[in-house]
Amino acid sequence: MEDSSHEASTFWTQADALLRKNLTYQKRNFSANLRLVLFPVVLCLLLVLLQSILDTQLNKSSKKCGCECVDINGDGSCEKVCGLEFSTTDQARTCSIPSPPAWPPLLQIPAPQYRAVRSSFDPSADLPDESCRTTGTCPVTVLVTGSNQTLGEILAQSMFASTGIPNPSNLTDVITNSVLGSSTEPQQDNFLDPAFAEAPPLYNAQLQCSSNSAFTVSVPDPDSKTQTPHVFQREAQCVTTKNLWRNGSAAINDELFKGYRKGNLERKINEILGAYDFLDSDATKYNVSIWYNATYKDTDSGGNFKLMRLPRAVNLVSNAYLQFRQGSGTKMLLEFVKEMPKFKNDTKLEITSLLGTLFFTWVILQLFPVVLTSLVYEKQQKLRIMMKMHGLGDGPYWLISYAYFFTISALYMIVFVLFGSIVGLKFFTMNDYLIQFVFYFFYINLQISLAFLCAIFFSNIKTATVVGYIFVFGTGLLGGFLFQSFVEDTKFPEGGIIAMELYPGFALYRGLYEFGQYSFMGSTMGTDGMRWKNLSDGRNGMTGVLVIIAIEWLLVLFVAYYLDIVVATGSGKSPLYFFEKFRKKRPSSFRRPSFKRQESRVFVDMDKPDVVQEREKVEQIILEPNVTHAIVSDNIRKVYPGRDGNPEKVAVKGLSLAVPRGECLGMLGPNGAGKTSFISMMIGLTQPSSGTAYIEGMDIRTNMDWIYTSMGVCPQHDLLWETLTGREHLLFYGRLKNLKGAELEQAVEESLKSVNLFNGGVADKQAGKYSGGMKRRLSVAISLIGDPKVVYMDEPSTGLDPASRSNLWNVVKRAKEGRAIILTTHSMEEAEYLCDRLGIFVNGSLQCIGNPKELKARYGGSYVFTMTTSGSNEQEVVNLVRLLSPNAERTYHMAGTQKFEMPKDEVRIADVFHAVELAKSRFPVYAWGLSDTTLEDVFIKVANSAQQFHTLT
Ligand SMILES: *[C@@H]1O[C@H](CO)[C@@H](O)[C@H](O)[C@H]1NC(C)=O
Ligand SMILES: *[C@@H]1O[C@H](CO)[C@@H](O)[C@H](O)[C@H]1NC(C)=O
Ligand SMILES: *[C@@H]1O[C@H](CO)[C@@H](O)[C@H](O)[C@H]1NC(C)=O
Ligand SMILES: *[C@@H]1O[C@H](CO)[C@@H](O)[C@H](O)[C@H]1NC(C)=O
């Protein structure tokens, strides 16, 4: 090329330009970035708060092993001692109990106010009268049945027969000589029996009570740390027991059912101690069934099962039968019940290890929609394509974008892990940091690649956001409620789990799950958390996860890059792009005579000599080297394939034109004429169906990347970053065009001055605050920076006020020097002012091409005569015109106003004036005029005739 300053910018120049732009952009975006990175901090704080609330709940003194200040050595000084003896039943659960106390086994005795009495629903004569309830002296009832009443009564009798007051300090004696019971509800363990630890009295169930039958039971606490052993003392009150014979188990069932406290709506309650059915027992056979009240066992609010006071009820009857067989000397005693010893348990619940997996999955997945929407935003706003058209290659774009997202993700994770560790979340502190680093490193890379891949399929930021968040929440929930159950199911085949982990969300879930498991085990059992050596543990899925995410990362990254280049940006690369790279073409210039060309030109419209001439010029240029023409379009054609039953649409029908340097070619044409399709091909957004174009001798089919470096585009809609200033925009695009240092500064300054954005600090205002006109001027400045040889401007002055417009026109007019400009517009004024030549484009082909004067002369061989009269005189006007010019044509007619075209060779202007004077004397003429053709008339004429021709054929 003749201009050595115009070398294509290198990969690193482009990367540098983009990096500088992004840094400025992100600096403006600082608070949003900060919010994102601080999100994990907020979450960690929330977790810590939750944990501390939970801890205080669990460690409230009412739930913690009771302590007291005790004078252990008897010297007056006291020491804090904790243990069973100072605890309530709730607190006992957390004490260290090396040797639990032995409790006398008790019966469950109904409370006095509920004991069975005679009533309307149970009128059995042998039940006591209701009056005993008021005095609290009701006996407890035991129901008995069996096939042999004599035997049954003997056994029942001997169960509760008293043999005198037991020695209260001797537990064996207590058990032998009394039947102890309590109406308290038992606990879920028996470290501290509420019957002894709490207030209600003990009962001694006897057939007969004497006046002095109360005694005190004491249970020594073997674990006591005080010098004198701690003793639990309770007075046992005698309570009369009545054994009532019933004639069958059905009768007992009925009576128990009716007396039930909760089922009885009239609040008439008849509770019964228990019932024994001796079935077919006899002297040689012991066969008994026992009814006991099991309702207590699940009344705990936490859903824990409680113990039941059942052993003594069984022991009583067994002992009675043994004594019936062997005499009263033989005894079978259930001396005590006792829990197993246990350590002190700190009821500490590691919330992160338990809740962590689902929670942290969400936190990390959160980054995915952030990356995705950011990518789709650039696509939706067409900023990506704008950068591409100004020479930004795919490589630098990928490198810088990827690096940016990686930095943000890495910061996010670092803050998360670091802060989580600082506040002491076991999830982070227990596990090896290196494993965590490797896992998170691979995963965030996989996630970013995945976002790049998904971004290809979205063009709308709203859809992308919605889909992104559905992915986040769906993955978390599916992971927590489906995937985890498979992982925990030891029978589920490992292969199935691996297959599910191919879905990146589940791989993440599994990894976090493993961290959670190891830290939970670590905090409850005092093990180490996950270490490298643990990776070979049998059920540890971390190894598999690491392998999967590492391989998927590389795979997804490659596929995303490939699809992005081939499919998405429409850069016109073939699917075999990567293979073509190996063939390494040299930029080919256009001097390759093509003989096929002749056939494709079979039909040439002889009506359009200017178009034919342009076509011949193009052929000439292609055959002979000619560097003066910057744009040469050679029979370029665009056909959109038929879709949904519609026929295929030919948008551009073999267009040939050549634009020399220093010329501005205006493209006029009605909407849908194919102008946009043509421009799209020229700027590399779409591929031509056939034919091609050469920009500075480079073929648009193969050398688009080179062409981008010497091309400028001013799109119809301003594609600007709201938060960047005008100067920053120009600096960025200038760098992309390989401008550096002082040269860049100067170019930007000149550019700003030329579009009148230099003064008053406008250059350093953010583009979002610009008015429409200023944005437009900035877009034009962008298209001109870096001295491009070819510039496309799509309706550059639409929507501008007249002052801004004339300002802009001056810029474009000055910019024409030394470069070729193709400009589309709907404003005839603009076309006439700016363009050296005009092409009118209708139905995909050029109808005429030439400078405005030529066109007007060719298509405007007539005067336009306008006259406005009252409606009744219209015919007279028509007659008058016919007289003046027999071939005149009426082109417009509306409410007395008529427009005629009169061929110039038929009329003389003087005749027209004369005729009008005459007419004025005959009828009232409101207004009249005679004008030469305007460009607008030419345009309408050409467009109409072409469209008529089109509809006829
Ligand atoms: C019932 O049991 C008593 C006591 O063992 C026995 O003497 C009597 O024969 C038994 N009656 C029947 C009908 O088996
Ligand atoms: C049981 O006793 C009831 C009356 O208390 C009586 O109606 C019923 O017939 C008896 N059943 C048997 C099997 O003897
Ligand atoms: C069994 O125990 C429950 C719970 O205390 C009580 O509501 C119910 O009335 C008792 N049933 C009988 C038949 O004693
Ligand atoms: C105990 O009694 C039941 C009911 O009468 C009877 O079905 C069962 O066979 C008896 N058991 C023995 C070991 O005799």
From TrEMBL:
Per UniProt, subcellular location reads as: Membrane
Q: Is Aminoacyl-tRNA synthetase among this UniProt entry's keywords? A: no
Q: Name one GO cellular component term.
A: membrane
Main location group: membrane
Q: Which InterPro entries match?
A: AAA+_ATPase, ABC2_TM, ABC_transporter-like_ATP-bd, ABC_transporter-like_CS, ABCA, P-loop_NTPase
Q: Which residues form the ABC transporter domain?
A: 631-868
Write out the GO MF terms. Answer: ABC-type transporter activity; ATP binding; ATP hydrolysis activity; lipid transporter activity
PROSITE patterns to which the protein is assigned, alphabetical: ABC_TRANSPORTER_1, ABC_TRANSPORTER_2
SUPFAM superfamilies, sorted: P-loop containing nucleoside triphosphate hydrolases
Name the source's superkingdom.
Eukaryota
Q: Which Pfam families match?
A: ABC2_membrane_3, ABC_tran, ABCA12_C
Assigned keywords, A-Z: ATP-binding, Membrane, Nucleotide-binding, Transmembrane, Transmembrane helix
UniProt topology in membrane: Multi-pass membrane protein
Membrane spanning residue stretches: 36-54, 354-377, 397-425, 437-458, 464-483, 541-563
- Family in the record: Belongs to the ABC transporter superfamily. ABCA family. CPR flippase (TC 3.A.1.211) subfamily.
Q: What is this protein called?
A: ABC transporter domain-containing protein
Lineage, top ranks: Eukaryota, Viridiplantae, Streptophyta, Embryophyta, Tracheophyta
